[in-house]
Design goal:
This protein has about 250 residues and is an alpha/beta fold. The chain is built from seven helices and seven strands; from the N terminus they run βααβαβαβαββααβ. The chain starts with a strand and ends in a 19-residue tail after the last strand.
Length: about 250
């Protein structure tokens, strides 16, 4: 079965950045999974939460509701510190993702680039760095060999993509975005459903209009990606399908 794994930093990233691809490929029979590294407790917008624990519970529930709307097969929120992923032990965080890659066994992995995505958020950048390291290491038996005693085996995902765009946000710190190598047409209906999934994150309601202007209006019915690495050596080429060239195993 074809499988896609998306690694994000915060609840709401799965919808705002990757929601169209998650919907499109689920409709094509691909099993989709999302691993979110933090519960988003550093957010300024906190809804009715009075404590970080309350906010974490709210945001986990919102993440689950968004994943349900996006028809995500498996969604999981880990417990790394929001706003401080740059201080997390790389070997530990990459190991958590390696274990999940070995269990889920995706052919395609989506995440952010080291630029931090369109917003340049440092947590997005670190999520991408952890995911990239995991992509490279999950297939090697000399990385985290203790995991192999737990019944999992090494797995080499075939393609790694970074979320990107062909424009910059004027109200953000400057970034150097990954080159666009794939444009995925998600269609008007999926674009609207992607926005509906984002709006499941009710604690972040003050951001809805800003996100709509930055992403919905500018991106329209397209999501853009950069092919960062492949299992099998290949020449660069422009793509309209993230599963182009993927072989079923």
């Amino acid at each position: 079965m074809r499988k896609l794994l998306c690694v994000t930093a915060h609840p709401d990233d799965e919808a705002g950045a990757f929601g169209g691809a998650l919907l499109l490929y689920q409709e094509r029979g691909v099993e989709t999974s999302v691993i979110c590294l933090t519960a988003g407790t550093a957010a300024r917008n906190r809804g009715t939460a009075r404590t970080n624990a309350e906010l974490a519970a709210l945001r986990r529930a919102e993440f689950a509701a968004s994943c349900k709307l996006l028809h995500v097969t498996h969604g999981e929120v880990l417990d790394y510190p929001d706003g401080r992923l740059d201080r997390v032990n790389l070997y530990e965080a990459a190991g958590e993702l390696v274990l999940r890659i070995r269990r889920i066994r995706p052919q395609v992995l989506l995440t952010f680039g080291p630029d931090g995505g369109m917003t340049g958020h440092i947590d997005h950048a670190m999520a991408g760095i952890f995911a990239t390291t995991a992509f490279e290491w999950a297939g090697r038996p000399d990385r985290y060999p203790d995991q192999l005693q737990q019944g999992v085996t090494p797995h080499r995902a075939q393609k790694l993509y970074y979320h990107t765009a062909d424009f910059l946000l004027p109200d953000r710190q400057s970034i150097s975005p990954p080159t666009v190598t794939a444009r995925i047409e998600i269609g008007r209906e999926r674009s609207e459903k992607k926005q509906q999934a984002f709006q499941q994150h009710a604690t972040q309601a003050p951001l809805f209009e800003r996100v709509r202007q930055n992403l919905g209006d500018r991106l329209g019915t397209v999501e853009m990606y950069h092919l960062a690495a492949t299992r099998d050596p290949r020449d660069a080429n422009y793509e309209t399908d993230l599963f182009e060239g993927v072989t079923e195993e």
